[in-house]
Prior knowledge:
Largest sheet: 6 strands, antiparallel
Mean pLDDT: 84
Number of strands: 22
Oligomer: single chain
Number of helices: 11
Amino acid sequence: MSKFFLAFKNVTLENNKGSLVELTQNEILIGRASDCTIEIPSIYTSISRKHLSLVKRPDGYYLQDLGSANGSFLNGKKMQPKKWYKLLDNYIINISTIYILYNIQPSSFTSSQPERPYSPYASNIQKSVDEKPSTDIVLPNNKRKEGIQLLTRISSGGMSTIYKAQFLDTMEIVAVKIPNSRCKKNNQTLENFIQEIDMSLHFRHTNIIQTYMKISYKSYPAMVMEYFPSETLQSHCKHNKDLLFTQINLIAMQLLEGLEYIHKKNILHNDIKPSNILINKDNKVKMNDFGASYFIHQSIPKQVIATPSYMAPERIRLGNCTAPQSDIFSMGIVLYELYTGFHPFVNEKTKRNTDAIKETILSGYVTSPMELKPSLPIPITTFILKCMEQNPDKRFQNVSEMKDTIKQWI
């Protein structure tokens, strides 16, 4: 009699079950709820409370997504909710960064961990055009019922373009980020884009745009993300200059929640600015764009990718840094704009001159926020200026300290 197993990767199961689970029941429920047959710890928020159902039939096990919030993928293809799929040996189930291998012979898993259903691009950027991705983008005149179809362009940046898109099988609306021609022509830039995808796949926080999966588009990597109807914080500040301080405090707290989450993963965002922050009509905030980010424990990238008007003075002098205080300085500039409506280092004289902006930052002079906004409370002014101290040792040493301060005003 055959035995059936599920081998889990990138997750530690509850109740000390380990990563290999033998399927011994006819009906199995996988999710974060305590009554699930296989319980996933609650910290894995990409998993719904009751996410997957397995049922044993005479010819083997069948799998069903129970209408989960983030969906599930079987061998790289998105599963339709409430539809049964027959599992065959070595099928891979993917929920965000969690991978589950269905296996009749578990020994093959212990010797070879399951790979992501998307080939790693870093080792071979110039992939064959004939190689078909597990999930691909289809053209509007294509009548296929699988894949992702681009709908409208949301935004364009220096290295990529983001589109509103739709899964053709489930009709789910998502966003797709695709490298542009400038990115494709530069191997280092393309490597940065690939790293952004791989890094973002592990982010699960309410104040960070969620990345669902990596796909191919014309032989290049692309990323599928949550669709978040919103505008940039930069645009929001221009159109909402009369926000109450109580409202701004709540926006600031969300920014710090997201930044704290990143820093606890030993990652520096490295390009914090209002145009990389999204906010919707309900003042819900999500951080976005990790193309310049890197792990603190890795070697420091030689190429400095950032916006000069939001760079900490030590980054201007030395290049990329490993201390979180550089992100804190950048966040201080964002908060300065948020509370006052003005940028502390960009004015009519400097706005078209990068060197002038850098010199202004290095000078250490910052106009007090209260001069621009007399109604601004003294504690908030002190808070902002501490974020922007020239000496990193005089700034907040971590985001938790910043949160503790703002909590007093909420």
